[in-house]
Amino acid sequence: MRKLNLDEKRRIEKLLLEDIEKKKEEYRKKRDEKRSEFIEKLNKSIPVAINKAFTEYKKYKKSADEKESFINKQGYEVNERNDELEVEANTWVGTKPKELEEYDKKTEKIKENLEAVKKEYTLKLYADTDEAQLLFDELMKKLDAVVKTI
Asked: What is the pTM of this model?
């Protein structure tokens, strides 16, 4: 028997590898089909303990969703951080706690009052320039009074 030269070995290697790759692909397709069938079988015959646990899960999930809805309607939200559930005031979008709404309204009212004072004293400044120092003193007192309402 004669020895194969390098070119012959390369051609034979290529044929061998092609045959192996074909067999691998056939096997993969067959296993994928069997896997789908296996999954279907698993889904049709779920163990009793799993079904029982799932039934309880659905019940508690519905109850939890109802509780979360109640919490949200009160202006709070449930968040999960670091695998811990916590409840906190909703501060941006949607329903906010009544106390926060009142706080925000008061803040807005004070901002409006400060804007009104700004306009008032700008008009006073241009009406009588001789009393500028008195005007600034009066302004500071008025600003302090507005801000003290916080």
From this structure: 0.52
3-state secondary structure of 4: coil
- Please list the residues that pair with 45 across neighbouring strands: none
| H-helix segments, the chain | 6-44, 48-73, 98-127, 132-147
Please say whether the beta carbons of 75 and 93 come within 8 A. Answer: no
Interval 19-52: pLDDT, tens? 999 999 999 999 999 999 999 999 999 999 999 9
Give, in order, the Cα–Cα distances in Å from 56 to each of 50, 66, 111.
10, 15, 52
Q: Which sign, positive or negative, has the C-alpha torsion 11, 17, 23, 26?
A: negative
End-to-end CA distance of the chain: 104
Cα angle: 103, vertex 76, 85; to 5 degrees: 135
| Residue labelled with tokens 């009588």 | 128
